[in-house]
Amino acid sequence: AQSVTQLDSQVPVFEEAPVELRCNYSSSVSVYLFWYVQYPNQGLQLLLKYLSGSTLVKGINGFEAEFNKSQTSFHLRKPSVHISDTAEYFCAVSDRGTGGFKTIFGAGTRLFVKA
Amino acid sequence: KAGVTQTPRYLIKTRGQQVTLSCSPISGHRSVSWYQQTPGQGLQFLFEYFSETQRNKGNFPGRFSGRQFSNSRSEMNVSTLELGDSALYLCASSLAGTGGPRVEQFFGPGTRLTVL
């Protein structure tokens, strides 16, 4: 069965420092990969997506992610974080199952940006 | 273009009652998916509707049901509420379903259900 593992449940980081949020998935077929962000009391907002093509994907708010097929990873990075980046981040994988495409979310990583 | 809207935003019910949540997708989107979000279980997929048909279903008991109307609006119903049903229920719409080239899901703000 398909699964998504976000390796860190919480990541504290100082403002203006770089950050990497790690995501690994298990799937033997072609997949589509996503990172979403959720601010308190809000729904999820798409940060970036990998559908095909270049393995380095750039998203909104200065985030980027690299798709690594051999390591089945899709880690999210930002070179310099801001206080406003404090939120929960979800990695998601979508592939074709018996009932059509399904999207599975990771457990989430809570990013705390400290001043 | 208006985003995904969910009503109501907050709901308080007691055990044994039933509840109906509503989701209006982005105009032109034909797929609507529902998720349950809790601190312990994270985001769990409930079901997806596409063109008024349930196309995918997660691992939830039959107390959880849904439907989609011809205008793509969707409702989710939970009968015989249990304390464990307290959660944020998120609705997401997309053009082509939960996968494929047009897979991006747009989420609503959610309905927070509290069961007492």
Overview of the molecule:
The complex is a heterodimer of chains A (115) and B (116). Chain A is mainly beta. Chain A has strands spanning 3-6, 10-14, 19-21, 23-26, 32-38, 44-50, 56-58, 64-68, 73-78, 87-97, 100-105, 109-114. Chain A is globular. In chain A, 37% of the residues are buried. The model of chain A has no long low-confidence stretch (mean pLDDT 90). Chain B is mainly beta and 116 residues long. In chain B, 0% of the residues lie in helices and 52% in strands. Chain B contains no helices and eleven strands. Chain B has strands spanning 5-7, 10-13, 19-24, 31-38, 42-50, 53-57, 64-68, 74-78, 87-94, 106-107, 111-115. The mean pLDDT of chain B is 91. At the A-B interface, β5, β6, β10 and β11 of A face β5, β6 and β10 of B.
What Rg of chain B is obtained from the alpha carbons, in whole angstroms? 13 Å
Helix content of chain B: under 10%
The main β sheet of chain A shows up as: 6 strands, mixed
Q: Helical percent range of chain A?
A: under 10%
| Helix and strand element order of chain A | EEEEEEEEEEEE
| Number of DSSP E strands of chain A | 12
- How many strands, which pairing sense, and closed or not: the largest β-sheet of chain B? 7 strands, mixed
As residue ranges, the low-confidence spans of chain B are none
Quaternary state of this entry equals heterodimer
Overall morphology of chain B: globular
Tell me the fraction of residues in β-strands of chain A, as a range: over 45%
Identify low-pLDDT runs of chain A: none
Question: What's the quick description here?
Answer:
In chain A, 0% of the residues lie in helices and 58% in strands.
Distinctive features:
heterodimer, A: 115 residues, mainly beta, four-stranded antiparallel β-sheet, 58% strand, globular, B: 116 residues, 11 strands
How is the secondary structure organized here?
The complex is a heterodimer of chains A (115) and B (116).
Chain A lengths: L2 E4 L3 E5 L4 E3 L1 E4 L5 E7 L5 E7 L5 E3 L5 E5 L4 E6 L8 E11 L2 E6 L3 E6 L1
Parallel strand pairs in A: 2-12
Antiparallel strand pairs in A: 1-4, 3-9, 5-6, 5-10, 7-8, 8-9, 10-11, 10-12
Chain B lengths: L4 E3 L2 E4 L5 E6 L6 E8 L3 E9 L2 E5 L6 E5 L5 E5 L8 E8 L11 E2 L3 E5 L1
Parallel strand pairs in B: 2-11
Antiparallel strand pairs in B: 1-3, 3-8, 4-5, 4-9, 5-6, 7-8, 9-10, 9-11
